[in-house]
Amino acid sequence: MQKVAVVGGGVIGLTIGLHLQQQGHQVTIFDKQGPAEGCSKGNAGHIATEQVFPLATPSLLLQIPSMLFSSQSPLSIRWRDVFSTLPWMIRFLFSARKRTYERSTKAISSLNQSAVGSWYRLLEPIHQQELIKMDGSLLVFESDALFQAYQATLSSLEHCEVEYEVWDKKQLRKRLPKLGLQVRHGVFFPNTGHTLEPYEMCLAIEKAYSSLGGEFVQKGVEKITPNAEIQTAGTTLAFDNVVIAAGVHSGHFVESLTGIKVPIQAERGYHVMVDDHQDRLPIPVSSADRKFIMTPMKYGLRLAGTVEYAGSRAPFNDKRTRLLAEQGDIMLQDGIDKAMLGEEWMGCRPTISDSLPVIDSICDGNILLAFGHQHLGLTHAAITAELMGQMIEKQATSLNVAPFTLRRFS
């Protein structure tokens, strides 16, 4: 049995904590905000195994200038933060080069292929399999030209062994009768899923973790030492291992321990809830034209997405949630009842420039790293937990973790 500290109480840290407790280790999770109060609280809830491509693509590079200056764009930048964002953005753009793009695609695919099985292995022992629904998801197209351009992507998905079905207008009307009539094409991904409420899912995981003897300490961590000591306000605690899973806040811990500066950025995503509209769609639906997702959840329909590059402490930008509500109104045949617009939320996705997380160990194996999962934190949480367990127990990992090494930035 190892005595392990996990720094970060989001979905990554919580699943690592539960998995390690299930293995028989003694775990303490540290997070000053409490369980899942950051990016994990309000995400789209999508188990996105079809998203095998890195965020920076050759085609995206051509679109960025026009996207930055359009009020209807899914991409925005807070101009007062542009100079602090610029070094990361340059590395992000360079990652669209063919060799880096192909390497990242292969690495993401390897995590995706193990994602669903690892979730069931985590949830079955605590009888919580119903927390995820593997009913598939749908990508829809309003533009014929955009759908034709997507054919090359479908060929690439086949190469990555991603299963899909192409739905025509007749199939779309039959299966999603409340979807807007302007939608002309759909691509259904059967091996994807979603959770009905990401925050409640995280709380259920934390409850199971605590029932197995895991401890949650609602304190901020001030320092991590190479020999696995945790320093909080006025307290130093010793552990056998420390796992850094603190999202966008992980970088400064890693830099203090290794001198390596990880190119990680707070990529801010938003959601707005439409209360009691969950019956409008049976499965998550993403718009290829409008770059957002609609997910039916326990309490309503969640409209989520967009990308805003800004400092992690920048104020909430309600233009982003208004845009989501406008797009949702267009995408549903009967529109949205504006009186039912409810919770608005923003969270900071921890995005590394090459779209790959850091999954590694440093300091002679005392410190483990599990952060930077960009849009795929929920998807990759359980497989990351398994890899952390294997690394702590000095076992061979179930998949090749070399692409996720910290040393790629040294």
Automatic annotation (TrEMBL):
Pfam families in alphabetical order: DAO (PF01266)
One Gene Ontology molecular-function label: oxidoreductase activity
Domain (FAD dependent oxidoreductase) ranges: 3-390
Domain of life: Bacteria
Family annotation (SUPFAM superfamilies): FAD-linked reductases, C-terminal domain, Nucleotide-binding domain
Any one of the GO CC terms: cytoplasm
Stored InterPro entries: FAD-dep_OxRdtase, FAD/NAD-bd_sf
Keywords: Oxidoreductase
DNA-binding listed as a keyword: no
Official protein name in the record: FAD-binding oxidoreductase
Organism of this sequence: Vibrio qingdaonensis
Lineage: Bacteria, Pseudomonadati, Pseudomonadota, Gammaproteobacteria, Vibrionales
